[in-house]
Amino acid sequence: MRKYLVLIPIILFVQITNACASASTDPALVRNAAEKLMCTCGDCELVLSNCECPRAGEMTALVEKKLSQGQSKEQVVQYFVVQYGERVLAASTNH
Predict the structure, then answer these.
(1) Which of 34, 62, 69, 91 is the S-S candidate for 48 at Cβ 3.0 to 4.6 Å?
(2) What is the mean pLDDT of each run of 10 residues along the chain (95 residues)?
(3) CA-CA distance, 12 to 22, in Å (whole number)?
(4) In angstroms, rounded to a whole number, what is the distance separating the alpha carbons of residues 5 and 27?
(5) What does the angle CA 12 – CA 62 – CA 79 come to, to the nearest 5 degrees?
(6) Within the chain, what is the greatest distance between any pair of CA atoms?
(7) DSSP code string of 11-66
(8) Residue among 87, 80, 84 nearest 60 (CA)
């Protein structure tokens, strides 16, 4: 019985942590991050926040997931740069 009493706080902690991680991220923050990225579908050449193709939906969901996990907008953008190269950036960083 005692071991179950020890498990209760652990289970509650895990449930609260999961609820916080799955909490909805501020849509304005998601949109702001998506404005920094280009859709990678290859057909539309649109900024991610303006594209409505299935690939843009997947990318936007990933942006939201990473932000909800505590990553900053800059970290999320950098993730996509590592995955796709600088071509994924909506504005070139080369001057």
Answers:
(1) 34
(2) 55 53 78 96 90 95 97 97 95 57
(3) 15
(4) 39
(5) 110
(6) 67
(7) HHHHHHHHHHHTSPPPHHHHHHHHTTBB--SSSS--BGGG--SHHHHHHHHHHHHH
(8) 80
Structure-block tokens of residue 28: 């304005």
Residue showing tokens 């997931």: 65
Contact 88, 36 (CB under 8 A): no
SS3 label, residue 93: coil
The two tokens of residue 4 are 């179950």
Cα(first)–Cα(last) distance of the chain, in Å?
Answer: 67
Does residue 44 contact residue 51 with C-beta atoms inside 8 Å?
A: yes
Q: Indicate the pTM of the whole model.
A: 0.71
